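Submission sheet (multi-component)
Chains listed below:
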Amino acid sequence: MRGYGDVHPTVAELRVGYLPVMLPHPITGELTEAGEVLMTECEVVATYQGDDNKAAPTFTLGYGACFGHNEVKAISMAILDRALQKGMKDGPENPSEDPEFVLLHVDGIDSMGFASHYKMPHYVTFQSDMDRLRTTQQKQEANHE
Amino acid sequence: MSNGINFAFLDEYAKREIRRSVLKAICIPGYQVPYSSREMPMGRGFGTGGLQLTLALIGANDTLKVIDQGSDDSVNAVNLRKFIEMTCPGIDTTTRLQEATLIQSRHRIPEQALRADQILVLQVPYPDALVIVEPSEDKRKVMHGEADYSRLLVKLYEDIVKFDEITISHRYPTRINGHYIIDPSPIPRYDVPKLHNSNALILFGAGREKKIYAVPPHCPAEPLAFDDVPFRIEDFTDNHGERRACKLCGSQESFLDEFIDEQGERVYQCSDSDYCEQQQELAHG
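Outcome: structure written.
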C-alpha cells in the first residue's frame, strides 16, 4: 500500500466461526474434541505475477487466521503473508516483503520491549557521547582557525 | 521449592539450554550463539539476557553482585538483585567486588581487576557490531563467518574523513581472538581494554535478540582501529591538562560521571560506586 508493496487484494474468503479444538485422548491417544474456539480466517487473491523464465503468469495468494472476531487483523495477515511469500521468492523489494523486518517488528512483545528500555538510566553512555561530541567540536573549531 | 517455583525461576531444561549455549560461546570466542530466550517476568530491554545467564549459572553457594551504570543502587540493579534473591534461596549478595563470585552488570566493567574465580555477566541490548552497516541478520551472519568486516572499517575511515576522529563513543567494535568482532555491550571505550586477557570469564546475554556470546579468560580482545589512528579511551583531562579527580575519593584513575550539583557547579564522581567507597575507606584508614 502507498508504494511499499503495492497490492489491492481481492478478498476471496473471509469467515468468522467456531472451530473444534482437538486434543489426543490421554488414554487411547485418539484425537478428541475438547471444546471450540472463535476464529477469523481470510484468504486474499492479489495481482498476477509474471516470471522472468516466461512461465505463464499467475495470481498470488495470501492467508491469515486469528483468534476471535477480528476481520481487519485476518485481512492484514493475509496481505502480509502474500507480501512475505513474494519476498521469499524474488528477494524483498521493500520492508513489507522482508521476513526479518515484518516478523520481528509486528510481534507485540518484541516491538514494545525496546521502547520501554529507554526509561533506564544512561549516564555512562551519555558521558561517553559527550566525550566524542566535545572532541569533534574542538577539532572542527581548530580546523576553522 | 515449596511455593512451586523452581530454584532460579527457570525450569531445568531452560537452564541446560543456556549452559550449553554458554559452553559453545566459550569454545568459539566472540561468536553469537542463538538460544531460545525465555519470557521473563520483566520487559525485554531490562536485562533479561543477562538475567537468564545469571539464573542458569547461579548456585546456592554463590555470592552475587548486581550493578547498573557502575552503581549497586541503580533502579535496574536493585530490581534484578531482588528478583534473583527471591527466586534463589541460599545465595548471598554483596556490593564489594572482591566478595562476589558472580557479577551481573549493565554498561560498566568494574574498575578493579576481576579474578579467575569470578564470572562477569553483561546485559546486551544490541549483540551485533555489524548492525550499524548491515540491517539484515541473514547477511551479517555470512559476513561474520567470513570475517568480512571491511564495511565497519570503512565506517571508521569515513568518520576520520568527516570529523577527524572516530565518533563511536560506546559499544566499540572489538575483535575477539583474531576473528569475530563483537559489540561489547554499551560499556564506555574506557572499559574495552579490560576485555583483553581478562582473568575472569566474561559472558554477554541479549534477551530481546536471543543471543549469548563470550570473551573467555586470557583471550585477546582488540578494539578496531588503524595503524596510524590508534584506539582512544574517554579523555578526562581538564583545561590545564590535569586528569580530573573524583569529588568524593579523589581518584584520578577511574571512569567519571559528570553532573551539575545543587550549587550549579560542574562536578565529577566515580561511576563505580563500590570502587569509590573502597578508595575512601583506604584514605580514612
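Remark: The two ends of chain B are 45 Å apart (CA to CA).
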